[in-house]
């Protein structure tokens, strides 16, 4: 469960616009190349239009998740359908992405990446991943 303090930290960090989520996508493809198999139709060259557009969509989705932390299932319900029924992304990949996200966050925040920030994002990203994966069977 996200505490009130967790939520505040996430909101504050998010508002600083650290650009973490987009770096995380690139990190995902480099660190876990198997994740590229979900994007056979993409030009995965760093900074390609497709990669940038996709990054923007994911960031927008996460921004709306940050704004709706008390209501994640509802806020992400369409995305949940998409990932479960259409894309069929193996849920393990959500963990990998969260990992990359934390690394980029740490690099961007430097000393502001406190254990509290780390823990809050861990919970938040797990909650997002749980919603995206809740319709799998
Ligand atoms: Zn995902 C898509 C979000 C994870 C894979 N995604 C997508 C989108 C969004 C998202 C917003 C768009 C939609 C539309 O268009 O409508 N994701 C997301 C999030 C997350 C994710 C938030 C977490 C956190 N994904 C993921 C992973 C993977 C994926 C991990 C694998 C690896 N996605 C995907 C795909 C797609 C998507 C494949 C489709 C693309 C195209 O465009 O085609």
TrEMBL record:
Recorded GO MF terms: haptoglobin binding; heme binding; metal ion binding; organic acid binding; oxygen binding; oxygen carrier activity; peroxidase activity
CDD domains, per database record: Hb-alpha-like
One record GO biological process: hydrogen peroxide catabolic process
Keywords recorded for this protein, A-Z: Heme, Iron, Metal-binding, Oxygen transport, Transport
A GO cellular component entry from the record: haptoglobin-hemoglobin complex
Highest taxon of the lineage: Eukaryota
Family annotation (Pfam families): Globin (PF00042)
Domain Globin: 1-137
Subunit details: Heterotetramer of two alpha-D chains and two beta chains.
Family (UniProt): Belongs to the globin family.
Annotated function: Involved in oxygen transport from the lung to the various peripheral tissues.
Name used for this protein in its record: Globin domain-containing protein
Species of origin: Athene cunicularia (Burrowing owl)
Annotated gene: LOC113485610
């Amino acid at each position: 469960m996200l505490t009130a303090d967790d939520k505040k930290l996430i909101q504050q960090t998010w508002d600083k616009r650290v650009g973490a989520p987009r770096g995380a996508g690139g990190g995902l493809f480099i660190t876990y190349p198997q994740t590229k198999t979900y994007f056979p139709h993409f030009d995965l060259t760093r900074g390609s239009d497709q990669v940038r557009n996709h990054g923007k969509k994911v960031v927008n989705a996460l921004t709306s998740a940050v704004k709706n932390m008390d209501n994640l299932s509802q806020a992400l319900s369409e995305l949940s359908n998409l990932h479960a029924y259409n894309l069929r992304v193996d849920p393990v990949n959500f963990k990998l992405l969260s990992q990359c996200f934390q690394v980029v966050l740490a690099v961007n925040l430097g000393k502001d990446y406190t254990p509290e920030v780390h823990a809050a994002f861990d919970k938040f990203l797990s909650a997002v991943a749980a919603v995206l994966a809740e319709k799998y069977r």
